[in-house]
Amino acid sequence: MTTGLEGLAALVTGGASGIGLATARLLSEQGANVAVIDLDPRGAPAPLRGFTADVTDDHSLRAAVQAAAEALGGLDILVNNAGIGAAGTVEDNPDEQWHRVLDVNVLGVVRTTRAALPYLRASRAASVVNTCSIAATAGLPQRALYSASKGAVLALTLAMAADHIREGIRVNCVNPGTVDTPWVGRLLDAAADPAAERAALGARQPTGRLVTAEEVAAAIAYLASPAAGSTTGTALAVDGGMAGLRLRPEPQP
Ligand code: NAD
Prior knowledge:
By secondary structure, this protein is of the alpha/beta class.
């Protein structure tokens, strides 16, 4: 079965690690020509093409998007995935950190998309997929700033989908639960009891385990592909049932 991704040109931000790398690999395996933009793109091996840029720096980002589009012969798919985390309640993060996280997680999507739009408009299979989060739809403790940034990504996804549908560009997002990536590895390493913290994060998801980066990549690749041609303005949860299910406690033996 063909995926419809064969020969399409795809750009993934934050594509050198975790969800972005798994997505870039899967799109490539399914026949797309793939470029990644990252602070350090060395984690993305050939045939992925790496370009260095910070999504908070409009000048270098525009140059990287242009270089990627020239290398690929255009752009059909943009995956806005670069993002950073923040822990704390509304009392805990200084203003500078609020500006920094919103700059990466929200304005990063804005800058990359507006640089890519001229190329997407020229595509006959144009699609944008944003990596959002369960933090946009469920209240999680100690994630005030991060949740605000992903709530903005969810709203931005819907607004962008409305603005660009008549140009033939679909816009969707994925809402992962806790995913086993280097990011979460760093969080676990910093915990007092990493094994207990991993068990607690896994138990928070009805499947009882962390999501894999490959499972999120599969959802992104679907939304990005022509197979999802009638799907725009949606958020696809990839969260082990965390957003939608209410289980009763397991019966005690
Ligand atoms: P990761 O840290 O493994 O990878 C993130 C990549 O983004 C890194 O390669 C990093 O260099 C790059 N990056 C960070 N800031 C950048 C910048 N300013 N410019 C360019 N590149 C930058 O993280 P991950 O877990 O794969 O997360 C990827 C996305 O998934 C993020 O948007 C994150 O918010 C989202 N997400 C992650 C989880 C999770 O549990 N891991 C859950 C929900 C959503």
